[in-house]
Amino acid sequence: MRIGLYPGTFDPITLGHIDIIRRASTLVDRLVVGVAINRDKGPLFSLDERVAMIEAEASRLKVPGGAEIVVHPFENLLINCARDVGAQVIVRGLRAVADFEYEFQMVGMNRAMDASIETVFLMADTGHQAIASKLVKEIARLDGDVSTFVTPDVNEALIAKYR
Predict the structure, then answer these.
(1) What is the DSSP letter of 67?
(2) What is the pLDDT of residue 16?
(3) Whole-prediction pTM
(4) Structural domains counted in the chain
(5) Residues labelled as active-site residues
(6) Residue 19 near residue 125 (C-beta atoms within 8 A)
(7) Residue 133 falls within a domain, yes or no?
(8) Between 128 and 114, residue with greater pLDDT
(9) Cis amide linkage into residue 12, ω under 30° from 0
(10) Using CA atoms, how far apart are residues 14 and 54, in angstroms rounded to an integer?
(11) Residue 162 lies in a domain
């Protein structure tokens, strides 16, 4: 069984993330969406809220021949999480050249720790390249419309958080 790990904080999950999940699910038999517990980032949504949002959005994906999608919170090193879930591949989404520079360094470190786990990059769909969770939160916080960047349920959750 080919297992892929798509890690992130998903605070909140955006249409860009969902696009990567949908596309990555065609490449593996099981896709584990790893939800990072990153206390340094001070997420807007709790871990439980982020996991619930991802599970809800993933359950709506109908991908012919697509993988089983499971959500897995983690707080350890990414490479250790990949080992924990039995992943042979880490899936990363790229929006711009700036993303690649950071990801390039991460791949080198991960390969040094475990060369048996590959990293695969998926370019963001052109319609989603500008979407970043950080910017979505900023727009929502300032009472802007983020409905073109997130699903209706996530939009409602953002509105509720900033009320």
Answers:
(1) P
(2) 95
(3) 0.94
(4) 1
(5) 17, 41, 95, 133
(6) yes
(7) no
(8) 114
(9) yes
(10) 10
(11) no
The values of phi and psi at residue 110, to 5°, are -65, -40
CATH code of 72's domain: 3.40.50.620
**Residue 27 covered by a domain:** yes
Residue 93 and residue 124 in contact, taking contact as beta carbons nearer than 8 Å: yes
Containing domain of residue 69, as a range? Answer: 3-125
Using the Cα atoms of residue 45, residue 21, residue 71 and residue 38 in order, give the sign of their dihedral.
negative
Per-residue pLDDT tens for 47-67?
A: 999 999 999 999 998 888 888
43 falls within a domain: yes
Closest CA to 91 of 1, 17, 11: 17
